[in-house]
């Protein structure tokens, strides 16, 4: 069975009768050879049978061979329009065949309909070639959509199958409707069926089994036998012990799969049974443990499918169109069915407004195909499960699952079981403890409600503001006489069970009897989703009559009245949530609050009385924060279930008489409390009995049971042993605390802002979070081993105990503790440390686990370390830490770098010290070059950039100060590229104190990667890149007048841990002009070194020099084009003759004098290079391939009095040098022929300073200098070189002192 053997796999070829037996027939046969067997030829003159006509209508692809005859034009245009209009999911492939007279008209008509591509016959294209093009297009349109995102899932299924033990293997494929279960099962089937003796794919298994019976169906599919067999024995005889592959697709009834697995245990070993279902319970009943959950398409795959279904080639250039497509894809959330349906619905629409309107309609009224897919799962639910699903779809998307369960439990729906069923049927998911629905699922749920009736008041759930306003609004029709109020719309609203009204941008008055007829209203929520908007929802007469007594949830923000209706019976209420209300009290008298579990009256500033709450025996949460007029909190010692009490901001509450015995979270932040009662009050029996008699509707047996449990709890709970969180923040009157060591469950203790608190006796031993910010505490007792977070910023701490043993502590903040002088040790797993504003003189060893360190100002970088102005710290501490940090950055995991966007991965700042430059290997100047690893495209993470900045004495403010980094390179054609990134040395907007002395800044950035804006990484010539650094302000303007980059360096960060330095190139001190007297002498020495280079090395030198000078890079384009340099060898040569400096870190530095010389040399010879560009390139190309072995060279400048050295030399030649006043004299070692020493040297007098000589040593001596030259006569030099014209004495002996020869060199100035 193939993918094409279903209705959606049919291909229809529509054509005129003239081409039916020729072109159309050949096309049909070609499609069959490709594996597309179901092809129907629809000829306009034929009357197709009913079956063929159905296939034409349901065909997935329609190939329309358009005629060129004028007689057919109108008919076929109408037919073409009919096809496009009738089946929007059908893909149309238009073909203009033959000598088409109407080609222009057809192309215009097809273009208007947005159909592409159009296949056209042409002179240079044979019919067979045209057929191949059409077949390829049809095949891609038929199957490419199904293949998107399948391959990775297919591999996972194969792994799951292969891991199973020997025997019959079973795999379940589970997922929501439309997610691609069937498509994935088909892909697995076609991938594997060839390895089995028999195989079958049964689509819509429940329906197929019901119609034909399981045994008959399997015999048809497995044995290709049309006989009807109702006995299992016959099938067993023919398939016994054979390897069989069976796919049961879309199983709803678990009995079908269960019976199959039980009756077919005789299948051969390694048989494979695959079952797809949207109900996980099917797999549990069939005891299938290997279940694969199908995930949705990722963003790239979803976009690809959407564009294909919408017949669009790309996203388009229009920004709004791009945003709309992304919105559609995000809404579909990876569901292939939704993406394909939305794409086809938007196909052909060219205007943005048309697309937006169509999408809004799709959201409001989902297409039938999507509704049908989800509705089938909904129909299998029980009544309670349907109610749970509809409540979640309409009201509880994204809510906390415990909150939802509590409310639905109060409605009697058994949500613990019901939500599990919804999860197993893929209608609901639980993620991060929240209930979530796919957007489509929510739409279907709401569509079910809207489909109940067209009458709004007859619907069971309402959430649309306009419809709720329609029901509740109070209208006055003014006529002659008194105003006449009308309100008839809420009549007949007995069916309403839930109402959630978002009052954003609404202003209306509520009818006093608005809720009178809503007898079944369970859930009422009136809220404002926009905190910046203040809605106006009032009662015109200052009251309203009643609320439904069936309410479980009463959530009403900004409730405008002083109390709830007196007639309201809250016996079923589970939660009261009325923040920012005008309530003074809830109601008058005593009410039955047996079901009430949560009450929140936050910021109800007129509230003065809540004493009735103590009657709610099942109360779990009391949140009355911000109720500023509330004077007291009732004695709640008898509320055994109360776990959370929030009194924060109740400034007039000065004491808490009783604390519930099972309290877990107590928030007293900002109250006027003076002392904390850590033991409960034990009431006498008479008080308990009197209390129980006040509770109505409670039987005597229940009273006795409640009294017994209360007494037991009171006798056993004499402290706050179950307290988990204690919030005392900003309790400015609190002066002391008792010993809390016995509070074993306390995890969070917040005492920040308790400015009068100066001592603590002890901490709970399992405490995890401790906040002491702003307290007067000077010393703390031993911290518990369990502590994970300690924040004491701005406190009066003077010392801290040794924290080295606190292995769980991750965050330590003692910033602003101005009296803190010493810290004895840091935990080894510490991640965040802040000691800015302290007076620390010495810092212990910093742990390598540290990710954030601040000793100056706060920031939000992922890894940021600030030591600004921390001059008391040892430079070695700072250096060691930076070296280790840079080492750690090299091991950044690949997946982490994908989450970095704008901020650098790592940043560091600290004062500069003398020995720091030696440690970090910084180079003089503001620019540096480095060479990337040849495989940098696969290994490069980013760069670490080190910049030393000198701050001028007269600068005013360093706020917003930053460094601009420019990375430059050239491609193989000589074209120049650059990338610029700006880094803030301190967070923008922060006030930075005046920075004293020089500081070093380090930025590690994974986004500083050479790129040209194209998808592929650029070709970088010689893999050389230059980095330049400039000081800038917050507006990226240059600050070179007040700040100077004095030194810099670059580190290449790779995924691999290997060193990226240029190996075998030892650091060479560059000739720094600032340290050598006489620029002219140095320049001549450098020029000598340059002149003696091979041509290919000269090109490399000029390229490096001009890459540093951004404006001159194009000048060497003609040189580097087509040249394959041995860069490593060339760099060695340049470093040996001191034309560049290469550090141990692989950085290449060229002093400004060399840059100037290279620039002038290039410009001087530029015209010559242009004239002989091609020949020079050829010569250089040959040289680069045949580079002669280079000899080590050393150039020195010496005074005339220091010409002699320890070696014995013999002059063997002399040469006039262009541009120089003096000749160059050549010497060789006197032991060349006796010991084979190859050392030579060249001596030249400086033209600018005759007292200075430039000596170039070539190769090193390998001779024994103490041994006299053997077998060499005094006339060897004369015999080999002839008498020197510059030797007046005839130089009978070539040996002699250097000064002897140099001194005889005449002055050539006159001659020139």
Can you walk through the features of this model?
Its main location: nucleus. This is Disease resistance protein RRS1-like. Keywords: ATP-binding, DNA-binding, Leucine-rich repeat, NAD, Nucleotide-binding, Nucleus, Plant defense, Repeat, Transcription, Transcription regulation. It comes from Camelina sativa. The chain is built from 38 helices and 49 strands. It is globular. A hairpin with an 8-residue loop joins strand 46 and strand 47. Helix content is 30%, strand content 18%. With 1312 residues, it is an alpha/beta fold.
Give the key terms:
1312 residues; alpha/beta; 22-stranded mixed β-sheet; 6-stranded antiparallel β-sheet; 38 helices; 49 strands; 18% strand; disordered N terminus; disordered C terminus; Disease_R_plants
Which descriptor suits the 3D outline?
A: globular
Average of the residue pLDDT scores = 75
- Poorly predicted runs of 5 or more residues: 1-8, 478-488, 679-688, 710-718, 857-862, 893-902, 1057-1079, 1167-1189, 1270-1294, 1303-1312
Largest sheet, in brief, is: 22 strands, mixed
Distance between the terminal alpha carbons, to the nearest Å?
Answer: 97 Å
Q: Helical amount among residues, as a percent range?
A: 25-40%
Number of DSSP E strands? 49
Instruction: State which percent range the strand residues make up.
Output: 15-25%
Q: What class, by secondary structure content?
A: alpha/beta
Computed over alpha carbons, the radius of gyration is 44 Å
Structure annotation, total helices: 38
